[in-house]
Sequence to fold (161 residues):
Amino acid sequence: MSVPDGSENASPGGPTTQPRAAGPRESLSIGELAKRARVSPRTIRFYEEVGILPTPERTEGGTRRYPENYVFYLEGTKIFKDLGFSLDEIAEVAQFALTRESPSERTRELLHDKIYQLERRVRVLKKLQSLVSEATKGNSSDSELDASLFGWISTSDVSDE
Fold:
């Protein structure tokens, strides 16, 4: 199964629970939802297949109709992907979020591991921000800038900073 946006494959079969609407429910076509969420209709269909999005309601003619709050789930999926979650992991978190059931041990472990990874990334980014900030103060020559920025990256175990 190919992924419309270059992501890795995930297991099929998604949640069928409809997300809770926040206020009146406006029903969107797949094209309208795609436009609002800035994804392709193909991506939406794929996310349904792999379990990230719940199965939408259909009209008598078989046309998919989506609650307006599906935009939130699509935007959340983009954020999770940017943070390094796989589509399988996003589907697992989506199932947990949609059902509001207690997380499974696997989901807990996944989320704890992701917290650790995100904290590590924050530490690395803060260190890099500090080095860039120092470099932009104008107190360093270009060679000192290169040494401080790239020296830190080449001599540090960035994953453990």
User: Anything to note?
Assistant: The chain has two domains: 27-101, 106-160. The two ends are 38 Å apart (CA to CA). The CA atoms of residues 52 and 90 lie 6 Å apart. Residues 106-160 form one domain.
